[in-house]
Design brief:
single chain; 288 residues; alpha+beta; Glucose Permease (Domain IIA); 2 domains; ten-stranded antiparallel beta sheet; two-stranded antiparallel sheet; 6 helices
Length: 288
C-alpha cells in the first residue's frame, strides 16, 4: 500500500497594486501587499477621510449647513439680545401694570393717595404756589409737594402757555363747584354742567380704564404723552372702552351722578403726572 506524501503548506496570497497609463499600459508605480496589509491600508484610508471630513465640518462654517439643529454663533448672540430685550420689556410692562392697578385702586378708594410711586423728575414748586398747597401736611402730600414742576405748574400764567403745554382743553364747559384740596383727599376739581353734557378728552391718548368704581361711578382714564393721565369720574355712562385711541375733544362719556362720592350731576376731573396728582387748574383753563 503506497503512502500519501504530506501536503505542503499553502503559501500566503500576495497582491500587487499597479499604477499604469491607460493607453500604453506603461507601469508607473507598483506595490506588493499581503491581505493583512491591504486591510490595514483600507482602514487607514477610511480613518484619514473621516478625520478630514470631521475637520472640515467642525472647524469651518460648513457645520452651520450640514449639522442638523446647529445654531450659529451670530444667531445665538441675537437670541441672547432678544431675551434681554424681552426681559426688560416684561419688567417695564409689569411696572406700568402695577402703576395702573394702584391708580385704579386709588380711584375706587381702596388705597391711600400716596400709594403710587412718584418718579424723581419733578422739582419743588415756587413759594407763590402756597395757596395751592396749603392743606394740612400728610406723608402723601409732602411727597407730592416736593415733586411738582415749578415751570410747568405756573405755565398757564404766561402768554401762549396753553399752546406750549400741549393745548389741553376743558373736559366740559362748566364751572368749578369744588376745587382741588389734597388735604381732604380731593385730588381733582368738580365741574358742574347741564345734565347729559358730553365729557370730552382734554387731549389725545389711549384709554387705559373705562369702567365702574364704587367711589367714582362710571370712570374713564386716558393716558397721554409724557406719562400724563386724565381722569373723568361720576359719569352717567361711558362712550369708550379700555384700549381705545381718542382724539382731543372726542366725547368719551356723558356727565352724570354715579358713585358713592357724588351728590349731584357733575364731573370730577383729575390730572396726574408721573404718578403725582396736580391741580388741573394749573394745566387747563377752567371757569370758576
Amino acid at each position: 500500500m503506497s503512502k500519501v506524501p504530506p501536503s505542503e503548506p499553502t503559501p500566503p496570497k500576495r497582491f500587487k497594486l499597479i499604477l499604469q497609463e491607460e493607453g500604453t499600459f506603461a507601469e508607473y508605480w507598483s506595490m506588493r501587499v499581503q491581505p493583512n496589509q491591504l486591510r490595514f491600508l483600507a482602514a487607514l484610508s477610511i480613518l484619514t477621510v473621516s478625520l478630514i471630513t470631521y475637520a472640515l465640518v467642525a472647524l469651518t462654517p460648513l457645520k452651520e449647513r450640514v449639522v442638523p439643529g446647529y445654531v450659529a454663533s451670530e444667531t445665538r448672540a441675537m437670541q441672547a439680545d432678544s431675551w434681554r430685550a424681552a426681559d426688560s420689556l416684561t419688567t417695564i410692562l409689569d411696572r406700568q401694570s402695577r402703576y395702573l392697578d394702584n391708580l385704579r385702586a386709588i380711584l375706587s378708594g381702596d388705597l391711600p393717595a400716596g400709594a403710587l410711586a412718584v418718579t424723581p423728575d419733578l422739582a419743588v414748586p415756587d413759594a407763590d404756589a402756597s395757596d395751592q398747597l396749603d392743606a394740612p401736611p400728610t406723608t402723601a402730600l409732602d411727597g407730592l409737594r416736593e415733586r411738582v414742576e415749578e415751570e410747568d405748574a405756573f405755565a398757564v400764567n404766561r402768554p401762549n402757555a396753553l399752546s406750549e403745554s400741549g393745548l389741553w382743553m376743558p373736559p366740559v364747559e362748566g364751572t368749578i363747584s369744588s376745587e382741588w384740596n389734597p388735604g381732604i383727599g380731593h385730588w381733582g376739581v368738580d365741574l358742574v354742567a347741564p345734565e347729559n353734557t358730553p365729557v370730552k378728552a382734554v387731549g389725545g391718548g389711549t384709554v387705559v380704564f373705562a369702567g365702574f368704581t364704587s367711589g367714582g361711578g362710571h370712570t374713564v382714564m386716558v393716558q397721554h404723552e409724557r406719562n400724563r393721565v386724565s381722569v373723568y369720574m361720576h359719569n352717567n355712562r361711558t362712550l369708550v372702552a379700555s384700549g381705545d385711541r381718542v382724539a382731543q375733544g372726542e366725547p368719551i362719556a356723558i356727565i352724570g351722578n354715579t358713585g358713592d362720592h357724588s351728590s349731584g350731576p357733575h364731573l370730577h376731573f383729575e390730572w396726574w403726572e408721573s404718578g403725582a396728582a396736580v391741580n388741573p387748574a394749573l394745566r387747563i383753563r377752567l371757569q370758576n
